[in-house]
Amino acid sequence: MAKSNILFIINPISGGKDKLKIPAIIDANLDRSKFNPNYSFTEYVGHAAEIAEEAANKNFDVIVAVGGDGTINEIATKVMQQQKILGIIPFGSGNGLARFLKIPMNTAKSIQVINGLNVAKIDTGTFNDKFFFNMAGMGFDAHISSVFVGNKKRGLSGYLKLGFKEMINYKPETYHLLIDGKGYTRKAFVVSVANSSQYGNNAHVSPRASVTDGLLDVCIIKSFPLYKIPLLAYHMLNASTDESDMVEIIRGKDIRITRVEDAAIHIDGEPFFMGRDIAVSVSPLSLNVIVPAEAGMTI
Ligand SMILES: Nc1ncnc2c1ncn2[C@@H]1O[C@H](COP(=O)(O)OP(=O)(O)OP(=O)(O)O)[C@@H](O)[C@H]1O
């Protein structure tokens, strides 16, 4: 069988972890009978997308994101458009999509998954003209990601510290939602649109979400008093938000969200501003991604 050309695109800042030794670890673990490897390090926001586009236009069959959900987003957008195959070596702060797909957090083990070349097709979503693969949304989480951009300390502890500080002053917003033709008005702390079940770090906002059902889960975290934060955290970490009256989950395909004024949204954890009206849609089974055979998903 002909060898596949594989490119590893490494985000040196994701997850706040050093990655200089990554090419050596990949060299030591990659199955050379299947792959010819190449490596690139990203130098700025948007660089992973540029590298991935160029690679997909050349003769790379598999493009691997070494980073978190933001890095995956840039690369997967190009991989999907060119119908190539995405690999993931999780190196982010949260690693939501990787965790959902049961890709090991251990680097050597995640390379073994790539060696297995078990390819599944998963759904992808759009927020206006931008694709998302794990989760997109607005409200407190988007506010945090917009503030976090200027923060030097990445990683989970940085998120948590900033989160507690900002939560004290945050005011829930009113959202008008139209989901497959049905209207809802909700005052919410967060509105998340989930492809996978989790934000990352096993914080599940929509425990029954599937990346192969052709649907997105609109998760409305209602306005709540601060003393209920531990209860919300408990439900997320125990994958039981669907049993909590703090969270409402509505599944759909064609979603419109209108907010009172423009504020940050996030796409796979990275902040953007898109105005007051967001059109959300899903492209069923549109991205090829390497997953562990045990994940029970395959083409
Ligand atoms: N050299 C670089 N300098 C600064 N930013 C970069 C560089 N390379 C990539 N980026 C940006 O880093 C951002 C964060 O990456 P990523 O989301 O993968 O990590 P994370 O936020 O730590 O993890 P997660 O999304 O899993 O919580 C992305 O928006 C990406 O565009």
The gist of it:
The protein has 299 residues and is of the alpha+beta class.
Write up this protein.
The chain has helices spanning 22-29, 47-57, 69-81, 96-100, 107-116, 140-148, 156-167, 229-237, and strands spanning 4-10, 35-41, 62-67, 85-90, 119-127, 130-132, 135-139, 173-179, 182-194, 216-222, 247-252, 255-259, 264-267, 270-273, 277-290. The protein is α+β, with helices and mostly antiparallel strands and 299 residues long. It folds into two domains: 4-117, Probable inorganic polyphosphate/atp-NAD kinase, domain 1 (Rossmann fold); 130-282, Tumour Suppressor Smad4, CATH 2.60.200.40. A hairpin with a 2-residue loop joins strand 8 and strand 9 (182-194). The two termini are 19 Å apart. Bound molecules: adenosine-5'-triphosphate. Adenosine-5'-triphosphate is lined by residues 11-15, 42-45, 47-48, 67-71, 74, 92-95, 154, 200, 269-270.
Oligomer: single chain
Report the structural category.
alpha+beta
The end-to-end span amounts to 19 Å
Largest sheet: 15 strands, mixed
Number of helical segments?
8
The helix content, as a percent range, equals 25-40%
Mean pLDDT: 93
Low-confidence stretches: none
- CATH topology assignment of the largest domain: Tumour Suppressor Smad4
Which H/E pattern describes the elements?
Answer: EHEHEHEHHEEEHHEEEHEEEEE
Task: Provide the CATH top-level class of the largest domain.
Answer: Mainly Beta
